[in-house]
Amino acid sequence: MRSHEGEGPKQFKAGFRGYRREPVDEYVERLHQWLLDSEARAEHAVEAATTAVGDKASEILRAALAVGEKADQEAEAVKAAAVENAQAEADRMMEDAHHQIEALQQSIDNLAVRRANVLSELGRLQKYLAAAAPDGAARGAEPDDDDDELEVIDEPISAAPDVRAASKNGDRSIAHSA
Fold it and tell me: Where are the domains positioned within the chain?
């Protein structure tokens, strides 16, 4: 409350000479009412401005929250896409690894077949050399019957060699005999 509210108009003492009292009292009363109305309008304007600022602040806050929610949604979408891409890349890498494992297993299988063929050919050559030597027993070319690693098979080699190797003296290649 203002200090002059509720006081009413200011009272003056009447003098012998001066203005007529009624018009001055009316004028002072009007000024007092105008002052009270102005203060009421000012308080109302402050309240309205406060409400308007509060409404504007609320609107700004709502807009900021909406922008924040949109940013969260976009971040989630980016995160989901990154996870999906990472999963796809991991799946592709696993598939590549499986293909490499299959290729290596096939190479191992081929090498096992080639090893068996080489051992077979060595057994056949051992028999051939033992039979071709004038006294095979004296030279120690006979195969040992207790040797489990060397399996003698009388079949031709089915896997072709990678490179044709030269003989010890270098004059000719070792021919692949069938």
Answer: 21-139
H or E element, residue 51: helix 21-132
Question: Residues 89, 83: contact at Cβ < 8 Å?
Answer: no
CA distances from 26 to 10, 18, 83 (A): 11, 16, 84
Query: Is the Cβ–Cβ distance between 39 and 2 less than 8 Å?
Result: yes
Residues with Cβ < 8 Å from 42, sequence gap 6 or more? none
Q: Let me know: does 10 contact 25? Beta carbons within 8 Å.
A: no
Whether residue 147 has pLDDT greater than 80: no
Tokens of 33: 């009412």
Q: Which helix (H) or strand (E) holds 45?
A: helix 21-132
Tell me the per-residue pLDDT of 89-116, one tens digit each, with 9 for 90 and over: 999 999 999 999 999 999 999 999 999 9
